[in-house]
Amino acid sequence: MDQFITKMPRSIQELWAYRDLLRLLVSRNVKLKYRRSFLGYLWSVLNPLLIMIVMTIVFSTMFSRNIENFPVYLFCGQLLFNFMNTSTHQAIFAITGNAALLKKTYVPKYIFILSKITSGLVDCVFSLGALLIVIVATGAKLTWWTLLIPMVFLQLYIFCIGLGLFLSQANVFFRDTQFIYNAVTTAWMYLTPIFYPIEALPDTVAWIIKHLNPMYFYVGQFRDLVYYGRCPGPAILAAGCVTAVVMLVIGIWSFNRSEDRFILYI
Fold this sequence. Notes:
Number of helices: 11
Helix content: over 70%
Oligomer: single chain
C-alpha cells in the first residue's frame, strides 16, 4: 500500500506528460474500428440501434407487457452495458497487444488501458444519437434530468478504468483471463436488468442484484434520468460512486504491484 501511495503522484505527472499520446491512441482506436467501412462513424448509431430492434422483437413478447415503452427501457440498459463490456474486453489485451512497443521504449503502461476505456466512452457518447432516435420515434418525454447523464458516464468510466487495469495485468500472467471474463460477462448481462424488470425476479435474487451488481447502480441511475425523468435516489448514487472509486483503487494497486514484471511475460 505504501508503494501504491508513493507511485500515485508520479503516475499523475506521467499522465499529464503523455496526454498527447493518450489523445493519439484514442483517436487511432476510434478510426481503426471503422476503417474501410462505408458508413464509418454512423455505425456508432446504427449498430446499437439494430441490436436494440432485434432484442426488442425477441424479448418484447416476454417482458414488454409489464414495461411501458420497452425500446427505451431496453436501450438504457443496453447502452451502458455495451460500453462496459466492450471497453473492458479490449483493455484485457492492452498490455500483451503492445508488447513490441513496450520492449523497445518506455511508455507508461497504463496509458494503453486508458486509451481503450476512453475509446469505448467516445463510442458510447456517439451511441446517444441512437438513443435520441428511439426516444423521438417512441414519443417518450425528455426532461431536464437528462442533463445529468455525464454524471453516470463519469462513474462508469472510473469503474471501467479500474476493472480494465485489473484485467490487463491479470492477463499478462494468466492468459486464461480472457476466456474466464467472457463467461463472467455473459452471466453478468443476464444478472443485470437490461431487458427485464427487477420486480420480475424472486426477492432474494433481486436483493443480491440491487446490492452486489455494480452495473445495476449505473443502469438504474441512467434509467432514472432518461426513462423515468427523475433524479436518482441518494442510495444508488452513493453505491455507484463508492463502487467506482473502490474498483479504481483495486485496479491501480494491482497494476502498480505487478507492472515491473510485465516485461518478463509479454
